[in-house]
Amino acid sequence: MTFDLGKIARSLGPLIITIQFIVVVFLYNRARPFPSPPKQETSGLTNLPIWEAVPDDSLYKSTAANLTEIIAAIIVGIATLACIFIKLSNRTINTNPPTDDNVWTMYLFNTIISVYVYVTFLAVLAGAILSVGKLWSAIGIYHNIMELCIVAALLHKSNFSYISGLITIVIYSVTVSMATSQLDWYWDDIFFKFQGKFIYVLCRLIFDYSLPILFYISMKQSNSKPTQAPVGEGSPLLGGSSGDDIPYKGTLLTVSSLIHLIGNISNVVGNNSTVSLIIFNGSYFFAFPLYALYVHKAQKHRNTRV
């Protein structure tokens, strides 16, 4: 069974926009009264305003939530070191670039996943040290950029223009950073949480909502066995159609992105409660080690084919 990603993306558009609208209405009701937001907290390190209200007895971030934030940074850091080790080890094994088009396509995609883990670690570490706010957003934006790159890699069907892609990334990051720096509290926090989702809604997709779906569809495409395997830019990203591929690599990506989505939903609708923060931070315990495991499995499989 084959899937048309473009048709699926178009059909998902109205549903995703509806879900997004419901979430926005929910957040608006939770954040009332506007335009009088709660008093803003400041960072203990930089003394700059951060995206948290001054805690009271009901909204105080518990020790458990703080502990999970620190552990999340450590675990994502370990996953990052694992990806770096895998890349360096592979460089000593295979000094020649891959020649097979399908293997090269997989190599590029695996590199995107590795960079995604790297920048997520930087964002989590910066958030733990600086606290999440305007200053942190200059680093956190790259997490969203890499999600954009993953979605673009999963959707594109023809030759990819790296120049156009670079220009798009620069414009996107500069625009979001400028808007975030100029908006007042509470709107800067809300805008940054939803900017990746709002901007991509215009393309009928939302980053976090789309990744599990696209990973699952790509996994199904990779596990299919057409009479003539596609090559080059049109080849499947998760391993091609050969029977010697590892079937659960796509499952790792689907499950990890779904866990990350659950954590983000909890963070958005949880109103900084202890449970929502633990779920959000805890999602990093599982999601990004699974991404690192995918890189390991994919790299091991590529070594057997080069």
UniProtKB/TrEMBL annotation:
Which segments cross the bilayer?
12-29, 64-86, 107-129, 135-155, 162-179, 199-217, 275-295
The name on file for this protein is 8685_t:CDS:1
Source species, domain of life: Eukaryota
What sections of the sequence does the record tag as coiled-coil?
none
Record bears the keyword Transmembrane helix: yes
**Which keywords label this protein?**
Membrane, Transmembrane, Transmembrane helix
Asked if the keyword Transmembrane belongs to this entry, the reply reads yes
